[in-house]
Amino acid sequence: MARGIASFRPARHPRALAVAAALALVAPAALVAPAAPVAAAEGDLDRAVAALRGISTMKADFTQTDRKGRTVSGVMTLKRPGKIRFQYEEGVPLLLVSNGKSFTMIDYEVNQVERWPISDSPLGALLDPARDVKRYGKLVPTEHPDVVGVEVRDPDKPQFGVITLIFTRNASAPGGLQLTNWVALDVQNNRTTVRLRNHRYGMSVPDSAFTYRDPRRSTRRPG
Q1: Which of 6, 9, 102, 202 stands 20 to 30 A from 68 (CA)?
Q2: What pLDDT score does 85 carry?
């Protein structure tokens, strides 16, 4: 990775927050947030796997919060297998996009592009078709019986990251569970929480939604 969170000085500027938090999402992580003490129901891991596999396309509004409570917002677009786009709010010149093989973070303020394989990211648990959530995932306690937490990690590849996915029971969502948020910690223990709301499922999403304008070039290229 050409640049890590340590290279960004603390700042209140929304771009600095978004960059640091985006790196926490896509860069390899090492830790996971502690869970609260309510046990999961039998079969919930299977239901969580079915919920993820049942999403063909989804859009949701997101808020992304760092460990100091600073927040930026935007719209997330998901298309399986492996495609996702985080379009940040106006004033944050940053884009995070996956084309199904790799994540790309584009910083239009400094005209920089960075890329990681999705398998090397905590979000690989959500996106990577080769990541077996049931094999590498386990249920974790949550604060409410209608909330399901799944921690996903590959014990043989800890550098590829850990993520905790949080679902709520919702009969109208794929598999009866709705992904509402996730938590990732980077190697420097910087926690990023992403919360989703206003979920929409099953709409037509063209693959062009997962391309980007490369600020280093004058032409558009796939992400």
Answers
A1: 102
A2: 96
What pLDDT does 5 receive?
23
Q: pTM to 2 decimals?
A: 0.77
Question: What is the SS3 string spanning 167-212?
Answer: EEECCCCHHHEEEEEEEEEECCCCEEEEEEEEEEECCCCCHHHHEE
DSSP secondary structure, 23-86, as one string? HHHHS-EEE-PPPPSBPPPTTHHHHHHHHHHT-SEEEEEEEEEETT--EEEEEEEEETTTEEEE
| Res 190: pLDDT | 67
Please, how many CA atoms are within 13 Å of residue 116, restricted to the half-sphere of its CB? 25
